[in-house]
Specification:
With about 170 residues, this protein is of the alpha/beta class. It has one domain: 3-Layer(aba) Sandwich (Rossmann fold), CATH 3.40.50. The chain contains 5 helices and 6 strands, in the order βαβαβαββαβα. Helix 1 links the parallel strand 1 and strand 2. Helix 2 crosses helix 3. The two termini are about 20 Å apart. The mean pLDDT is about 95.
Length: about 170
């Protein structure tokens, strides 16, 4: 008798000025799909507060039989970190995480995940690279620094390669 395959789920959280199927998420979702993962991209459009986004993300998480991976960009990365504290995902893949932002409930939230990867731009005009690297060090996270700005659009091909490696490593265990 064949054992049913687990269904791994990747949940994407977009940034403040993006949408659930922006360019980065679309590209990363293609990678997740080729790895056999189910995909959910939460729509936060029209939501201003981080708290509202966190609640929406938590309410969107279905029952799954496999591993949960949270992926977020900018404010979506912040949301993913906060959500990780309640759902303990297998992985967090963060792009230009919005850390150190005044007005957010916790400017330097603690992450809970088996594996954490941070991708950040050296020339990020919103979040200094040092903020991201310090946070990554505190969380024993892998940290990739790119010659790009906050949007990371010029290096999406490299980020997709890193994401594929991240998923392959997580799902192999």
């Amino acid at each position: 008798m064949n054992k049913p395959q687990p269904h791994h789920l990747v949940i994407f959280s977009h940034g403040k000025e993006s949408g659930p199927w922006g360019g980065k998420i679309t590209r990363l979702a293609e990678v997740a799909s080729t790895c056999g993962c189910d995909i959910l991209s939460v729509d936060y459009q029209g939501m201003e507060s981080a708290e509202q986004r966190i609640t929406t993300c938590l309410d969107s998480i279905p029952e799954i039989s496999g591993k949960l991976i949270l992926v977020g960009s900018s404010m979506g990365a912040y949301v993913s970190i906060e959500v990780s504290q309640q759902v303990n995902p297998a992985g967090l893949f963060l792009l230009a995480p919005a850390l150190g932002i005044p007005g957010y409930p916790n400017p330097s939230p603690k992450a809970v995940a088996t594996s954490i990867s941070v991708s950040h731009g050296w020339h990020d005009e919103l979040i200094p690279a040092q903020v991201a690297t310090n946070w990554a060090r505190e969380h024993n996270a892998t940290c990739h620094l790119y010659n790009d700005d906050h949007r990371l659009l010029n290096v999406i091909d490299q980020i997709c390669v890193e994401f594929r490696y991240f998923l392959d490593s997580l799902l192999a265990v």
